[in-house]
Amino acid sequence: MTPAARVQSAIKILDTIIDRAGNKGAPADRVVSDWARANRYAGSKDRRAIRELVYGAIRACGPIPETGRAAMLRLVEGQPALAELFDGSTYGPPAIGRNEAAALGGVAAPWVIRHLGKSWISGDEAEALLDRAPLDIRVNSLKVSRDTLEVPETGEKLLAPDALRYPSGTQVEQWPAFRDGRIEVQDHGSQWACRAVAARPGETVIDLCAGAGGKTLALAAAMDNRGVLIASDTDRNRLSRLRPRAEKAGASMIERILLDPGKELAPLSQYRGKADAVLVDAPCSGTGTWRRNPEARWRLDKPELLKFSETQANLIRIAAQLVKPGGRIIYVTCSLLNEEGSDRIAAFLTVHKDWTATPLDLPIGRPHGVEGAQGTRLTPFHDGTDGFFIAQLTLRQ
């Protein structure tokens, strides 16, 4: 493919991404993958170049653009050399019109910017949300230690004891260590969210929103495969992915429980009041993951944010019924909006007087939230991780 043809292909892909984002359809990575499968003539170099153009344009735009061409013109403003590829050639984009407008730039739509500002995310903190994220891995301590791990490339040792960092795009999925479960891809901040649970061998721990089980696997390693570890979720498809991952990782103590939306407590009734810890890795807007999913900014709307907040409040209430006296809830969101973080903790404590917010002893992040309802916040700018809010709630004995 010619460079101009790559630009035109990127524009077409962006048109599809914009349409899907507006209709809550397939995410950007799936759109890009679908295009690659449907256009086998594009070689590996072409696909990489087109992907870079697509995600470069997404990061360059703030609010959702009207068209893929407008999004690409926004990228041109930061990379003027691309303008020469709008040459009207057979497979290239038409020349740029004299008064043709580019999409708007910025971090996000104005209403989202206002919410971030109210949550103390602005300036450099906000800009860092759109940086490219590195690739972090967690060494699976059930099989090997970080010091004895053998992999093709030497990674940077991070603060978490099992964490290594590599440049974005490192093909760790092709390494034998990944295929045999010695390593898992997991952001450094996510690893600290798991360590905040302080799961110990012999405890009863519930991962209430386990999804495909990335955090569950980290909990199994922390518990050294001893105790009771429940992975539950309402999404059958995502939860089903945990079985082969657990087998590969040697995590033999995990029990999977599918939950019925609206009746989540019924399948967990035998654990009511018995859990030492419940991890609530709640569904959220994902504002802390924009480095990896910049197109998520275009999908968020006010009704959806309100729905997330209601879901998060409900999940904390469910978790509270599972914890035994002296036990703990670790509440985690990969969001930097107070509505999904510190506000949820404060609202819960206002009603549930037998619970307290217990400070987390983490060597990373900063305290965040009102006095008496504080948690820990991690941000890309300050901590070099995805954005997280992590709080610990303890039931008085």
* Helical coverage, percent range: 25-40%
Q: Per CATH, which architecture of the largest domain?
A: 3-Layer(aba) Sandwich
Specify the overall morphology: globular
CATH topology of the largest domain: Rossmann fold
User: Helix count, per DSSP?
Assistant: 14
**Rg result:** 22 Å
CATH superfamily of the largest domain: Vaccinia Virus protein VP39
Structural class: alpha/beta
Residue ranges: pLDDT <50 for 5 or more in a row? none
Chain-averaged pLDDT: 96
Sheet with most strands: 9 strands, mixed
Quick description:
This protein is of the alpha/beta class and 397 residues long. The chain contains 14 helices and 13 strands.
Write a concise keyword list for the protein shown above.
16% strand; 3 domains; 14 helices; 397 residues; alpha/beta; Rossmann fold; 9-stranded mixed beta sheet; 13 strands; Alpha-Beta Plaits; 4-stranded antiparallel beta sheet
Secondary-structure map:
Blueprint: H1 3-22, H2 28-38, H3 44-60, H4 68-78, H5 110-118, H6 124-127, E1 135-139, E2 156-157, E3 163-166, H7 176-179, E4 183-185, H8 188-196, E5 204-207, H9 214-222, E6 228-233, H10 236-240, H11 242-249, E7 254-258, E8 275-281, H12 302-320, E9 323-333, H13 342-351, E10 355-357, E11 366-368, E12 375-378, H14 380-383, E13 388-395
Parallel strand pairs: 5-6, 5-8, 6-7, 8-9
Antiparallel strand pairs: 1-3, 1-4, 2-3, 9-13, 10-13, 11-12, 12-13
Helix pairs in contact: 1-2, 1-3, 1-4, 3-4, 8-9, 12-13
How would you explain this protein's 3D organization?
With 397 residues, this protein is an alpha/beta fold. The protein folds into three domains: 3-106; 135-185, Sun protein, domain 3 (Alpha-Beta Plaits), CATH 3.30.70.1170; 198-395, Vaccinia Virus protein VP39 (Rossmann fold). Helices cover 35% and strands 16% of the residues. Strands 5, 6, 7, 8, 9, 10, 11, 12 and 13 form a nine-stranded mixed sheet that branches. Helix 1 crosses helix 3 (44-60) and helix 8 packs across helix 9 (214-222). The chain is globular, with a radius of gyration of 22 Å. It starts with a helix and ends with a strand.
